[in-house]
Amino acid sequence: QLQLVESGGGLVQPGGSLRLSCAASGFTLDYYNIAWFRQAPGKEREGVSCIISTGGSTIDADFVEGRFTISRDNAKNTVYLQMNSLKPEDTAVYYCAASKQLLSPCVISTPVYDYWGQGTQVTVSS
Predict the structure, then answer these.
(1) Using an 8 Å Cβ cutoff, are 117 and 107 in contact?
(2) How far is Cα 50 from Cα 22, in angstroms, rounded to an integer?
(3) Is the N-terminal amide bond of 41 cis, ω within 30° of 0?
């Protein structure tokens, strides 16, 4: 069974950091582009960052502003999202997703992605 499992979410104060992990089971991430998306209450799901299968190229949404870094460790079958300088508006459920379309550069558009995790809650509040 193909599965993506996110972890690492939680409650953090403004200006703090979190590292999200996305672990795959039942398939090898080497052959997939991976992206992180987020969805805040009452808002549409939006793309955050993506990384191509080899890890050689990444794309970030404008709102990231250099605060987040996506990376991958194919040996561990895991993708990460390091989030620094967090703001209250970063509060959302964060999802990882895998795409069989090996676009380069990758894109952070929901229709491109085939497999999704269940999400992890990130809350930024004092």
Answers:
(1) no
(2) 12
(3) no
User: What 3-state class would DSSP assign to 88?
Assistant: helix
The partner residues of 12 in beta bridges, in order of sequence, read 124
Q: Rounded to an integer, what distance in angstroms lies between the CA atom of residue 93 and that of residue 101?
A: 24
Give dist(CA 23, CA 4) in Å, integer.
6
Q: What distance separates the 2 farthest-apart alpha carbons in the chain? A: 40
- pLDDT given for residue 1 in this prediction: 81
- In angstroms, the CA 35 to CA 57 distance is 12
For the segment 49-62, what is each residue's pLDDT rounded down to a tens digit? 999 999 889 999 99
Cα distance between residue 28 and residue 18, in whole Å: 25
C-alpha pair distances (Å), 122 with each of 13, 44, 104, 112, 114: 11, 16, 29, 24, 23
